[in-house]
């Protein structure tokens, strides 16, 4: 395999900085994390390519630029409590943990949950807590969260997640009607008022709500 350190440097420069991402903590985290360990060995050579990749069970690890964009929109500061819905490979959660956050991530597919959990153990990343559940219900026992990130797209912003967002909190979530095309929505809670801003088109796998909607 090509040198992963050089591949990452190039990925950050050509795919992420070139598209306007400036948050140093985001760039440093992505430069540091071995993304090739979050995909199957047979796909490791593609881990630094400008595209999403399959991770099994019909799911994908997001394109590196999208991970960077969502992480920058969150405005993460160390020690923040962050909820992620859609653990998948665990890469997005690892980026946020690398930035110093305490991450709570929920996955509904057993096989992905167990392989992500093993990955975090192997990497000794203990600041990520995982749960096997329907993430549209959030993680009520750990709420409120300073930040929430949803890495799958559904028809609306699940109400429990808005309720579990702290005051002055931020959430990024793909929202859309048709399959695999959504708008990336930034939800801000400012003095109890909820404000939503559209940050442009994205293409995520489906957010499957088993009892939420
Ligand atoms: N953040 C991931 C990308 C995950 S793809 C990464 O960095 O690799 C989206 C994931 O969301 C899939 O694994 C899918 O199973 C999961 N998902 C979809 N609906 C969900 C729900 N209601 N609750 C929890 N996880 C869900």
Sequence of secondary-structure elements: HHEEHEHEHEEHEEE
In one word, what is the shape?
globular
Termini gap: 44 Å
Which small compounds were modeled alongside the protein?
Answer: S-adenosyl-L-homocysteine
- Uncertain segments are none
- Named CATH architecture: 3-Layer(aba) Sandwich
Mean pLDDT: 95
Tell me the structural class: alpha/beta
Oligomer: single chain
Estimated helix fraction: 25-40%
Strand content: 25-35%
What's the number of structural domains?
A: 1
Find the CATH topology. Rossmann fold
CATH class value? Alpha Beta
Biggest sheet strand line-up: 5-4-3-6-7-8-9
Q: Sheet with the most strands?
A: 7 strands, mixed
CATH superfamily: Vaccinia Virus protein VP39
Number of helices: 6
SSE inventory with pairings:
Elements: H1 4-16, H2 24-32, E1 53-56, E2 59-61, H3 64-74, E3 81-85, H4 91-98, E4 102-107, H5 110-122, E5 128-132, E6 145-150, H6 159-163, E7 165-175, E8 182-190, E9 193-202
Parallel strand pairs: 3-4, 3-6, 4-5, 6-7
Antiparallel strand pairs: 1-2, 7-8, 8-9
Helix pairs in contact: 1-2, 1-3
Bound molecules: S-adenosyl-L-homocysteine (SAH).
S-adenosyl-L-homocysteine is lined by residues 59-62, 85-86, 88-89, 91-92, 106-109, 112, 134-136, 151-152, 205, 207-209.
């Amino acid at each position: 395999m090509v040198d992963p350190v050089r591949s990452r440097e190039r990925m950050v420069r050509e795919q992420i900085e070139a598209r306007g991402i400036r948050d140093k903590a985001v760039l440093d985290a992505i430069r540091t994390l071995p993304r090739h360990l979050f995909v199957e060995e047979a796909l490791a050579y593609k881990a630094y390519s400008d595209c999403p990749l399959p991770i099994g069970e019909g799911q994908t690890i997001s394109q590196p630029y999208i991970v960077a964009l969502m992480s920058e929109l969150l405005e993460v500061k160390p020690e923040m409590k962050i909820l992620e819905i859609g653990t998948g490979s665990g890469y997005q959660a690892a980026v946020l943990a690398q930035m110093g956050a305490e991450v709570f991530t929920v996955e509904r597919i057993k096989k992905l949950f167990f392989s992500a959990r093993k990955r975090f153990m192997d990497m000794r990343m203990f600041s990520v807590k995982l749960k096997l559940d329907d993430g549209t219900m959030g993680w009520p026992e750990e709420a409120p969260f300073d930040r929430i990130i949803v890495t799958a797209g559904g028809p609306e912003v699940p109400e429990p997640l808005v309720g579990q967002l702290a005051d002055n909190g931020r959430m990024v979530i793909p929202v859309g009607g048709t399959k695999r095309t959504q708008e990336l929505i930034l939800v801000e809670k400012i003095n109890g008022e909820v404000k939503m801003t559209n940050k442009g088109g994205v293409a995520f796998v489906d957010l499957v709500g088993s009892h939420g909607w």
